[in-house]
């Protein structure tokens, strides 16, 4: 049974959830920055843990904190976390290589900005209208041509090769 005051209290205090995430590169600790850089180089799992000298559970904790600080909710792929790290300045952009960038086909050129943003295959297919199987095979071929070992490393390689220009003053 509700009284008049109960109803008034419910109307006066609407339920709102504050979902803002900090967007400052200074919020990323040096240890988390090292973890993100190692992921950007293509390391995962046990090799990542060995390189950093920490357990896999500690890596997962650092990734959880990075997701919060950089504004990447959990279902997002690690490649988007790496892309956000570059865009926010949490990690320094990779140095441009002197290698010649591979020539891109029409579909590859359409997918490169999305791959550099770290988006999943499904999201790339939705945004470009390219069928999902074609997106998969095109991105796998692009990984092979650029020498990337996984999606987070592809984000780095696309920037190193100059196929993607960094976003200027982009807000997260």
Account of the 3D structure:
The chain has 172 residues and is mainly α. The chain has helices spanning 4-12, 30-40, 45-52, 56-70, 78-88, 106-116, 121-128, 132-146, 151-160. Residues 6-10, 12-26 and 168-172 have low confidence and may be disordered.
How much of the polypeptide forms β-strand, as a percent range? Answer: under 5%
What does the radius of gyration come to? 20 Å
Average residue pLDDT = 79
According to DSSP, the number of beta strands is 0
Structural class: mainly alpha
Q: What is the helix content?
A: 55-70%
Count the DSSP helices: 9
What is the straight-line distance between the termini? 45 Å
Let me know the largest β-sheet.
Answer: none
Could you list the spans in which at least 5 consecutive residues all have pLDDT below 50? Answer: 6-10, 12-26, 168-172
* Cα shape: globular
Q: What are the secondary-structure elements, in order, as H or E?
A: HHHHHHHHH
Condensed summary:
By secondary structure, the chain is mostly helical. It contains nine helices and no strands.
Output the keywords:
mainly alpha, 9 helices, 0% strand, 172 residues, disordered C terminus, globular
Helix and strand layout, with pairings?
Blueprint: H1 4-12, H2 30-40, H3 45-52, H4 56-70, H5 78-88, H6 106-116, H7 121-128, H8 132-146, H9 151-160
Helix pairs in contact: 2-4, 2-5, 5-9, 6-8, 7-8
